[in-house]
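Appendix C. Worked example: Xaa-Pro dipeptidase
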Amino acid sequence: MDKLAPLYATHIAELNRRYADILAREQLDGLIIHSGQAHRQFLDDMNYPFKVNPHFKAWLPVLDNPNCWLLVNGRDKPTLIFYRPVDFWHKVADEPNAFWSEFFEIKLLTKADKVAELLPASLTRWAYMGEHLDVADVLGIKHRNPEAVMSYLHYHRSFKTDYELECLRRANQIAVRGHQAARSAFFNGASEFEIQQTYLSAVGQTANEVPYDNIIALNQNAAILHYTALEHQVPAQRLSFLIDAGASYFGYASDITRTYAFEKNVFDELIAALNQVQLDLIAKMRPGVRYTDLHLATHDKIAALLLDFKLASGDAAGLVEQGITSAFFPHGLGHMLGLQVHDVGGFSHDERGTHIAAPEQHPFLRCTRILAPRQVLTMEPGLYIIDSLLAELKSDARGKQVNWDMVDQLRPYGGIRIEDNVIVHQDRNENMTRDLGLA
Ligand code: GLY
Ligand code: MN
Ligand code: MN
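Step 2, the predicted output written as structure tokens:
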């Protein structure tokens, strides 16, 4: 299994070290990690797509098998209870035979409700980790998602092992292939729906396998931050294209955004300017820097951009202080990335989970951490024409500082976001997305 196999051994050793440490502190014998259970749709006989417990997939890339369990104590080889029912309706998972199999004591489970037979005899000092507290109840497990354990693991999850970094690079590699195909589809006249199909074919993943719902937005739809409708109709005029789309590799996510103008015009110049802002911000990343300060620096840069492009007048500091930049850039600069797209630990400042919230004026910032080696973050400044937010400026004195003619001119283009995935190293930043040649 190429170079991942040796990295995986070290990954498992590090997870065991973390679990041993926190279990000793909490005087627990071990953790019982549940992969999850199928969720049935209301009044139906079908299930929602299965999404595995991230703490389960941290140990091994089994993403699609409910009713599996891991018994971990940080010392012994972890036990994997692997679900293989007799079922002629659905595909049954093959018996594990992968590069990761040798790292587990594997027991097969044929009936989901018989798992108790494979669990330790006394569960008083074992804790359940998962979402189905009713199942823990039935099994008689008293400790459930203990806060101290969760805080510890969530804090440490922000420091990726070499195996995880390699998975994240590969998730970027796959997504970049999709972005390149999607870009061509846009310039060749495709609809949003057709671009989505092109993207998914290029990455070789279904809409349920990619890590989040793709945002494929033409023209003014690019101003809707979480736009996931996919119009089948080709728009009469082709102005702009914003694509926010990722890919999964062994359960790790990439999260990449690009924006394109169909023609060379002022919107295209604005994209180039925001692109430079993003690169300048990435250049400021280094161990010891507060992510919050990078977010605040983004507002200063957006203010300068608003002045350069005559979208606003006045002085840059005033535009930030009065919340004018926030109307054009209402979301956070980015977030931690890993097993989850918005990975855990963004506000957690130590093993005990000490929470440092975003500044009051920046409620959508998802990360306040001090940067450190092995952290992986997205960097995604944006600039949009969002009428509901601009209306607030228009209704008071701030409206005089906004150039509404320029706003009208840019409105049909929607907005811009440029998002890369970056690893912080001790001596440099690794921009996984740009390293793959995505401009
Ligand atoms: N695609 C979700 C995000 O950028 O945070
Ligand atoms: Mn994104
Ligand atoms: Mn993101």
